[in-house]
C-alpha cells in the first residue's frame, strides 16, 4: 500500500545517505549540492550501471551515487509509474526500489515522501505521521 511518510520518520529507520545499502562511506548533502552546482550528474539508473560499478573501487562507486542523487535533486522522478518502495528485510527496514530518489528528497529538504510500504504491523506506529496516499 502507498503511504506518505515524513522524511524524519523514514530516516529514523533507513537513510540512503548513510551509504550502508551501497557499501560506501556516508554521503553528505553538501557533496550532492556541490555536484548539482558543478552539473556533475549522472542520469543513468542503477539497473544500467550496477554490473559495471560493482567491478570498480568503492570510491568510484560512491562518486556514481553522489552524481545520481545530484541528477535526481533537480529532476524529480518520484512518479507513480515507478514507485519507491520499502519493506521488512532480514537486516531491518530497507529500500527495495527508489533509494537514490529518496536520497534526493532528503537533500532537497522535502518534508515527506510517497512510498509503497510492505511491513508487518501498523505502518503508522513504525513511521509516525504516515498517512495512506
Q: Give Rg in angstroms.
A: 14 Å
Count of runs of 4 or more consecutive helical residues: 6
How many runs of DSSP E, i.e. beta strands?
5
Shape: globular
Task: Report mean pLDDT, rounded to a whole number.
Answer: 92
SSE pattern:
EHHHHEEHEHE
N- and C-termini, Cα separation:
8 Å
- Tell me roughly what share of residues is in helical segments: 25-40%
In terms of per-residue confidence, which ranges show pLDDT below 50 for 5 or more consecutive residues?
none
Strands of the largest sheet, in order across it?
3-2-4-1-5
- What is the beta-strand fraction? 15-25%
**What is the structural class?**
alpha+beta
Instruction: Supply the number of structural domains.
Output: 1
Biggest beta-sheet profile: 5 strands, mixed
Q: How would you portray this structure in words?
A:
There is one protein chain. The chain is α+β, with helices and mostly antiparallel strands and 133 residues long. The protein has one domain (2-132). Helices cover 40% and strands 19% of the residues. The chain has a 5-stranded mixed beta sheet with strand order 3-2-4-1-5. α2 packs across α4. It is globular and about 40 Å long. The model has no long low-confidence stretch (mean pLDDT 92).
Amino acid at each position: 500500500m502507498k503511504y506518505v511518510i515524513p522524511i524524519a520518520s523514514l530516516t529514523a529507520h533507513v537513510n540512503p545517505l548513510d551509504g550502508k545499502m551501497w557499501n560506501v562511506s556516508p554521503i553528505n548533502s553538501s557533496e550532492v549540492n556541490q555536484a548539482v552546482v558543478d552539473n556533475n550528474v549522472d542520469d543513468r539508473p542503477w539497473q544500467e550501471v550496477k554490473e559495471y560499478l560493482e567491478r570498480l573501487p568503492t570510491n568510484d562507486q560512491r562518486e556514481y551515487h553522489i552524481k545520481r542523487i545530484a541528477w535526481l535533486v533537480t529532476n524529480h522522478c518520484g512518479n507513480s509509474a515507478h514507485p519507491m518502495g520499502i519493506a521488512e528485510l532480514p537486516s531491518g527496514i530497507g529500500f527495495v526500489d527508489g533509494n537514490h530518489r529518496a536520497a534526493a528528497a532528503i537533500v532537497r529538504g522535502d518534508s515527506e515522501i510517497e512510498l509503497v510500504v510492505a511491513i508487518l504491523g501498523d505502518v503508522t506506529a513504525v513511521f509516525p505521521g504516515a498517512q495512506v496516499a
